[in-house]
Structure formats: structure tokens, C-alpha cells
């Protein structure tokens, strides 16, 4: 395994007077160079254009005795190993306890490559994805994480908290649908006549706003919304709706705010509207996997979310600041293995994967000449689902024992809780936690301090679809995580 060494400046973390609550903000650029690998699909994509810059936006909180750091990173995901490097760099640079550092991936599918191991070889869709460019980029991001941590703590000033809630309508939709053939499909396409009905509950359209008024500085706005940032696609670098929301909100306040966006429990929801009203398809175009995408639509989503946040920004209700606390709850979850005819399933998976690798090598993956399509007849999202299923079966066949999923949280008094999930929780996980949390404001974050896959509810394993097909976790995972997170929050609230 490669070892990376980072030169950082150490500074004291406890910079506030005892009992005085402070907050600070920092922003650094992490736009990758052209030619960088772009994760998010089962194919080898390389960045050819930058539509808007990628950033790390970080907030520091201090009660005078303890300091915590919440970092929002414009990337598709951050592997456990890379998250460890980033957290270690921030902790070393500032003296903040490592457990009080959360690094959250926004999940833009048009960012740099941080969701990987450090062995020097990482495989995506059968293609060796990590290059020297990507190694240099990884080192830069880790160093910039430390820079942001140092600058956020330097910016600490006496602060007051308040919060508001609003809604962003008709930009997030359930992406799982029952089809006429009895199967459940993920993203079956706009106006598909074979759709019977959506599967699952309506999406969580709540926009949560944490306002932090800092003495002698611009207020900080933390926006929490939950849906997939897979709106743009192609080979263009963009922060997607989370980054564009920052831009719109700050512009709408005439530059008198500093904004970051934390993406919530978004595993089974995205921007795809299968039954659009007139005008709602503006700025969208059918992509390779039968999903409609477009940069203009990402801007539209940013406008809607920012408008919802602005609706409550000047009327946020005060919250009482308090002690900074943090902790981890380790949740044990069974492995999702093919239980029936294991040898048969593994042989099938190996065949699908070998055909997929051949398609990647010849540059025909996802097209009509894809070797998996030619043999099995799958196209679009169904092709993606079955290739991903094959990859999961192959990987889980080598896993021994159960998974242990760490849930990390940072809390402020009994008012605010940040809950970090190292993967992609289904929408209703966030709903359940927010409803029962002992804190006045609970902000759930996907893909934080790691990236381990989807966290679906048990019924989706029987129904089928991309999420359960790819999830490495057994059917109890959603309920296990809800129970574990609420246990952690109740412990930290005491």
C-alpha cells in the first residue's frame, strides 16, 4: 500500500474561551485537472471540461473546550481509506480530535476520484481507473482538507444559532417503479407506458436551514436537502445541484452569506420525473442509460432549493448553543450474499463481468454492441443494474463474517445533531431519524467518513432494482442503522 506524507501546520484547536460558543468557515478549491478519472458510472470517463469549480466547504464549531469540523466535499464518494487520510490531516493540522471531524461527499457524479483504495490500482467497470494524475489529485485534496480545517478555526468568532424549515417541491422523485412485467425498475424512463406505479413513500422534500450568525463576519448558512446529484453527466466537471445551490443562495443574499450544502438520505430518490408537466423537461436530454440529464436542470434545482432556504432565512427560530459532543456507534449488519445456488449465481456473475470487461476494453460498453447486451438483451438502466449485481456477487463471495458500519455524529448542546452515514441511505431512513431524534434540528448526511454502498429497506430486496442488487448489506440494514443512529443521538443528548 502506498503511504502519503503531508506537511501541515499544527495549531491549537481550543481557541475559544471556556463556555463561549464560536463558529468559523473556510472554502478551498479542489477542481481536478482535465484527464482525471470521473467515478459514478460503470465506465471509464475522463474529465474534458470544467463547468464550475469543485470545493471543500468547512465549518468549525467550538465551545471553548472542544472543537468539531464538518466538511462538505464536492465529489461522488470518499472511500474509507481516503476519508481516514482527510480526517487525519485535519486533526494533525489543528489538534481537533479525529472523531470530531466529519468529511461528507456531496455525491456529484461529475467530480474527481476519491472513492478508491490506496493500493495503486482501483478497478471501476473492469478498467484500471487510478492513474498518476488521480494519485496527485488525491494528495492535493488531503492537503486542502488540512488547509480548510486550519482556516475554519482561524475564522472562529462568537456565534448564535437559529434554524428554519421549508420545502423544495417537484425536484426530487422516487426512482423505483413497479412495471407491468411485475419487476421493480430503477429509473425506467420518462413517460414509459410500462410503469404501473411508484414503489415506496413520497420523497422527503424538506429543506432544513441552520443559520449561524458570527460576530463581525458574514452569517453561515447550512442547507440540508436530500436527492441524488446525478443531474449533469457527460465528461464535464461540475458540483451539480449542491454546488450550484451554494452559488445561487450566496448571490441571492447579495454576497452577505457563506453557504454549504449537506446532502441527506438520498439512496432511492433523484431528479428523474417520469410523468413531467409541460415545461418540466426543459434543459434535459436523454443520456446513455435512458436517464434524462442536463446542466440547466441542475441550475433549476439549485434555484428551487435556494428559494426554499431563502423563504425562512430571515425568520429562523433561535436555538440554544451548548457543549460540543461527538461519538461513534458501530452497527453490525449481515452480508448480502446470493443464498440460492451459490455456485450457479457466481458462474453467472463471472460471465456477465467478463463480458462487461470485454465491452469496456473495446469501448462498446453501454451501446448496442455491448457484449452483455448482445448475450442477455439488457439495455439502459437494466444493463447497469445487472452488471452491478454481478459485481456485488463476485465481491461478497470473498467477504467473511458480518459488516461493521460506523455511524459518526457531532452535536451542539441539545439543539443540533449532524449524523454521518458512510454510504447511501434510503430516503425514509432520514425521515425516521428526524422524527425521533432528541435534538431540535437533526441533519443527516450521506456518504460521510466513508462510502460503502446502498442502505435499502428490507422490502426492496424482494422487489428488486439497482439499489438492492448492488448493496453489500443484508435486508436488515436500514432498520439496523435507524436503531443505531437513534441510540447514538440519545447517548449524546444526555
Mind telling me the C-alpha Rg?
22 Å
Average pLDDT reading: 91
Determine the fraction of residues in helical runs and give it as a percent range. Answer: 25-40%
Indicate the low-confidence ranges by residue numbers: 1-17, 119-128
User: Largest sheet, if any?
Assistant: 9 strands, mixed
- Strand proportion, as a percent range, falls in 25-35%
Count of DSSP strands: 26
Q: Structural class, from helix and strand content?
A: alpha+beta
Label the overall shape: globular
Number of helices: 11
> Separation of termini?
41 Å
Relevant terms:
494 residues, alpha+beta, 9-stranded mixed beta sheet, disordered N terminus, single chain, 4-stranded mixed beta sheet
Describe the structure.
This protein has 494 residues and is α+β, with helices and mostly antiparallel strands. Helices cover 31% and strands 25% of the residues. It has eleven helices and 26 strands. It has helices spanning 80-94, 132-154, 240-252, 295-313, 342-361, 371-376, 380-396, 427-436, 458-463, 466-470, 477-493; strands spanning 22-29, 49-50, 55-62, 67-73, 101-105, 123-124, 127-128, 157-167, 173-174, 176-179, 184-186, 195-198, 206-214, 220-225, 236-237, 258-263, 269-270, 285-286, 292-293, 317-319, 324-333, 403-412, 416-420, 424-425, 441-445, 454-455. Strands 1, 3, 4, 5, 8, 13, 14, 16 and 20 form a nine-stranded mixed beta sheet that branches. The chain has a four-stranded mixed beta sheet with strand order 21-22-23-25, with helices on one face. A three-stranded antiparallel beta sheet has the order 11-10-12. Helix 1 (80-94) packs parallel to helix 2 and helix 5 (342-361) packs across helix 7 (380-396). The two termini are 41 Å apart. The relative contact order is 0.15.
Amino acid at each position: 500500500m502506498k503511504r502519503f506524507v503531508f506537511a501541515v501546520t499544527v495549531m491549537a484547536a481550543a481557541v475559544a474561551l471556556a463556555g463561549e460558543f464560536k463558529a468559523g468557515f473556510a472554502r478551498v478549491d479542489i477542481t481536478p485537472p482535465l484527464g482525471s478519472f470521473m467515478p459514478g458510472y460503470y465506465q471509464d470517463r475522463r474529465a474534458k471540461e470544467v463547468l464550475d469549480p469543485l470545493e471543500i466547504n468547512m465549518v468549525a464549531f467550538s465551545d471553548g473546550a472542544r472543537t468539531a469540523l464538518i466538511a462538505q466535499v464536492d465529489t461522488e464518494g470518499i472511500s474509507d481509506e481516503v476519508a481516514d487520510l482527510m480526517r487525519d490531516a485535519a486533526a494533525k493540522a489543528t489538534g481537533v480530535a479525529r472523531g470530531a471531524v466529519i468529511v461528507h461527499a456531496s455525491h456529484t457524479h461529475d467530480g474527481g476520484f476519491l472513492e478508491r483504495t490506496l493500493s495503486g490500482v482501483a478497478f471501476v467497470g473492469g478498467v484500471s481507473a487510478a492513474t498518476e494524475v488521480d494519485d496527485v489529485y488525491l494528495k492535493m485534496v488531503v492537503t486542502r482538507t488540512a488547509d480548510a480545517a486550519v482556516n475554519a478555526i482561524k475564522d472562529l468568532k462568537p456565534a448564535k444559532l437559529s434554524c428554519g424549515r421549508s420545502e423544495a417541491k417537484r425536484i426530487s422523485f422516487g426512482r423505483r417503479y413497479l412495471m407491468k412485467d411485475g419487476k421493480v425498475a430503477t429509473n425506467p424512463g420518462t413517460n414509459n407506458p410500462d410503469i404501473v406505479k411508484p414503489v415506496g413513500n413520497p420523497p422527503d422534500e424538506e429543506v432544513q436551514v441552520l443559520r449561524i450568525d458570527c460576530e463581525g463576519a458574514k452569517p453561515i448558512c447550512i442547507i440540508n436537502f436530500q436527492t441524488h446529484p446525478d443531474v449533469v453527466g457527460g465528461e464535464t466537471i461540475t458540483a451539480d445541484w449542491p454546488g450550484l445551490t451554494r452559488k445561487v443562495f450566496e448571490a441571492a443574499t447579495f454576497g452577505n452569506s457563506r453557504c454549504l450544502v449537506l446532502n441527506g438520505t438520498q439512496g432511492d430518490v433523484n431528479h428523474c420525473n417520469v410523468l413531467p408537466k409541460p415545461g418540466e423537461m426543459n434543459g434535459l436530454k436523454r443520456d446513455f442509460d435512458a436517464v434524462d440529464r442536463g446542466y440547466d436542470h441542475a441550475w433549476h434545482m439549485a434555484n428551487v432549493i435556494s428559494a426554499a432556504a431563502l423563504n425562512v432565512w430571515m425568520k429562523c427560530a433561535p436555538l440554544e448553543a451548548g457543549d460540543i459532543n461527538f461519538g461513534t456507534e458501530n452497527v453490525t449488519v449481515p452480508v448480502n450474499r446470493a443464498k440460492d445456488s451459490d455456485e450457479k449465481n457466481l458462474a453467472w456473475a463471472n460471465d456477465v463481468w467478463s463480458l462487461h470487461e470485454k465491452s469496456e476494453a473495446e469501448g462498446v460498453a453501454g451501446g448496442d454492441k455491448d457484449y452483455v447486451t448482445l448475450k442477455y438483451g439488457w439495455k439502459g438502466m437494466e444493463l447497469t443494474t445487472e452488471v452491478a449485481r454481478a459485481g456485488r456477487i463476485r465481491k461478497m463471495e470473498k467477504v467473511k463474517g458480518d459488516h461493521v458500519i460506523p455511524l459518526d455524529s457531532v452535536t451542539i448542546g441539545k439543539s443540533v445533531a449532524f449524523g454521518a452515514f458512510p454510504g447511501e441511505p434510503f430516503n425514509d431512513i432520514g425521515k425516521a431519524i428526524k422524527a425521533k431524534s432528541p435534538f431540535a434540528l437533526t441533519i443527516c448526511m450521506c456518504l460521510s467518513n466513508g462510502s460503502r454502498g446502498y442502505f435499502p429497506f428490507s422490502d426492496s430486496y424482494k422487489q428488486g432494482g439497482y439499489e438492492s442488487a448492488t448493496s453489500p448489506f443484508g435486508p436488515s440494514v436500514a432498520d439496523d442503522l435507524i436503531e443505531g443512529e437513534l441510540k447514538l443521538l440519545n447517548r449524546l443528548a444526555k
